[in-house]
Amino acid sequence: MSPNSTTHALTVAETGTSRIPLAGGIRAGNWVFVSGLLPDELGDPGRPLSGEPAALTQSKAIWRRAAAILAEGDADVSRIVRCDQFFEDWRAVPFFHQARREACGSYVAPSTSVLQPQTLIPGAMMMTDMIAVARSGPAIEPIFPKGLDVPSTSSFVPVVKAGNLVFVAGFLAASGKGDLDGVAAEAKIPEGHLWKGNRIQLEANYVIEKKLIPALEGAGLTLQDVVKANVFLRDIEDVPAFNQVWNDAFGGHVPATAITPTSKPGFAIEDSRIEINLVATTERHVQRINGGRAGFAVCQTHPAAIHCGDFLFFSGMTAADANGLITDAQIDPRERYLSSSIEAQMDYLLDCAEEVCAKVGASLRNVVRILQVHTDLDDVLPALKVWQRRLPGVPLPISAARVPAPLIVPGCTVQLDLWIHAPQDAT
C-alpha cells in the first residue's frame, strides 16, 4: 500500500464558536469531493410569498456553491459522477431538479434523493454532496443500459464509469416508462392479502434484479464487482429481512454497506420502502476487511470495509459491541450531567476506523467523505469536537443530518459512513 495520500482541502471555513474547520470539499488525487453542501441563501423570511419559491432560491445557491468548490478542485459540473441529496420537504425536490438542469445542462450525474427530518441549518430544505473527477483525471463515460427504466423527471444518467469505478444511481422498486407506474406489482403483496411474501423483500429483490443488475451489466460488470452500497430504508425494522435478501444476492459476500433510515414517506414514490445506490469497480484486486471491533460496529454479514483502487470504503458503523450499545456510552442517569454518550460513541467509532485503516496502511487523516447521521442534532457539535481532538487541524469533509430514531442498534445515536483515500501500489 502507498503510505502517502495526496489530499487537499477545498473552501475551508471555521464553524461556530468552537472554530472547528470544515472542508467544503476535498481534492484527492484525480477525485474531487463536495461535502455537506447547504444553501447560503434561504429566501426572504419577511416576504415568503413574494418572488421565486424559497426552494428554488436555495437550490440555485447550492449549485453556485458547488460550481465554486468544483472549480477550486479543477473540475466542473460536467465532471460530476455522483450527486446525493437529503430533503426536509418533498415539495422542494422539483425546484432542485429545475436548478440542477439549469446548472448541468444535458448531463446530470447519477443521483439519489431521499427525505430526512432535519438539516444542520434551520430553514434549509436540502443538503447535498457530490463526487467529481478533476479535468486531469480519467474520461467520464455515461451509460444508458438497455431496458433500464429511470425516473422521468430527474434527468440523471443512470450509470457512469470513471477510471476504475462505476457509479449507479439510486433506484426504487419502480416500474413503467419513466418509473411512472409506481412500485411494481410484483414488488407488492397482492391487495387484500396479509401474507404473500414480505414487502421489503419483494421490493429489495425487484431493485436488485430489475434495476441494479441491468445497470451493472450495462457497464460490463456484475454484483460481484460492487464494493460500496448505500441502502435507505423507510422502516429500520426491515433491516433483518432486507439483509437476508442482500446476503443471498451476493452469495454471502456483500459489499461495504451503509443502511440509513429515512422519513416516512422517504422516497419519490410515497409507499416505497427502499432505495439503493452502488459503487462498483473494474479492479481485480479487492480486499475485504473483517473482524476486530469494527466487526461488531457494522451489521452482521457486512464487511467492516473494502479496499480497492484509490479508496477504503466503510460499511455504516454504530458504536456497538457484541452486546449492543457500548458500555461507555450507556450513561447512568445519576451521572447524566457528568458524562457524554455521544463523545463515547464517537471515540469508539474513530478507534474502529483507525484499526481498519491500519490494516491496509491507510490513515484516517485522509478521509475524503464523511456521512454522519444523528438522531439528535444537538450531538453534532460534541461529535465534531471528538473529530477535532483526534485529527487536530484537519478540515472535516462532513455531511451531517438528522434521521429518525432508532438506528440499527438500539441506543446508538450516530452512524458513520466513511471513504478514505488510500491508493494501492501500482504493483
- Which percent range describes the beta-strand content? 25-35%
Low-confidence stretches: none
Overall average pLDDT: 95
> Percent helix among the residues?
10-25%
Distance between the termini: 9 Å
Structural class: alpha+beta
Number of strands: 20
Please state the overall shape, judged from the principal axes of the Cα atoms: globular
Question: What distinguishing features does this structure have?
Answer:
single chain; 427 residues; alpha+beta; 6-stranded mixed β-sheet; 28% strand
Description:
This protein is an alpha+beta fold and 427 residues long. It is 23% helix and 28% strand. It has seven helices and 20 strands. The protein has helices spanning 54-72, 93-104, 199-218, 239-249, 292-297, 341-359, 380-390, and strands spanning 7-15, 20-28, 31-37, 80-87, 111-115, 126-133, 140-143, 159-162, 165-171, 226-233, 256-261, 274-281, 287-289, 305-308, 311-314, 320-321, 324-325, 367-374, 398-402, 414-421. The chain has a six-stranded mixed β-sheet with strand order 1-2-3-6-4-5, sandwiched between helices. A six-stranded mixed β-sheet has the order 7-8-9-12-10-11, with helices on one face. Helix 1 (54-72) runs parallel beside helix 2 (93-104), helix 3 (199-218) runs parallel beside helix 4 (239-249) and helix 6 crosses helix 7 (380-390). The protein is globular. The N and C termini lie close together (9 Å).
